[in-house]
Amino acid sequence: MKKLLTIYFIFTSIILFSQTSNQIYFSGVIKNYNKKELPYVNIVVRNKHKGTISNEKGYFAFFVNKNDTIIFSSIGYKKSKYIIPDTLTKNYLSLNIYLKQDTIKLRQTNIFPWQNYEEFKQAFIHMPIPDDDYDRADKNFILMQKQILAYDESDYPSPPGVGYHIYMNQYYDKLYYNGQTQSIKLLDPIAWAKFFKALKNGDFKQKK
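Predicted structure:
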C-alpha cells in the first residue's frame, strides 16, 4: 500500500510540474521489429541540448515540449524520429518506439595470402612442422652429449655445480688435514677407480 501511495504521489507531482511548466512527460520502450527491447539507445531533442538514453530494458523517460522532434539512434539500426503532437490534452505521453535494423549480416570471409589452390598446396607441402615435446627433448639430449664430449676445462669456465666440486676436490683435503699429516690414499677404492678409468682412457700415454 505504501509503495502504491508513493508511486501515486510521484506521478501526481510529475503532472503538476508539467502543468505549471507546459512540458510533456514523454516515456516508453524502444524495441526492434522482433519486439526485442533495445538497451542504451541515444535519444535527443532536435535543435535542443537535451536528451536521454534508454536503460538495459529499453525504457526511457524525460520531459519534452509540444512540437519537439525526438531522434532515436542506435548502432546497427536506422534513425527514427517522432514529433510530439501539439494536440495533446494530457501532460504525459507513453509510446513504444520501433527501430528498423540497418545492417545486413554477411557470411564470414576468409582472406589467405595465396592466389590459388596450387600456391596453397606448395606452401602446405613445404611448411616446416614444429617439433613436439619428444623431438625437442631428443635434440636437447644430443646437444648435451656433444657439449660433454667437446668440453674442455681449459677453454670454458665450469658451471657453478662443476666448479664447486672441482674446488672441493682440490682444496678439501688440504683444509681438512691442515696442521697434521695427510693420510695416504693407497687403499682408497675411489682413487683406484679414477686411476683405472684414466688408464683405460689413455690419459697416461705420451702425447706426440
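Summary: Residues 134-200 form one domain.
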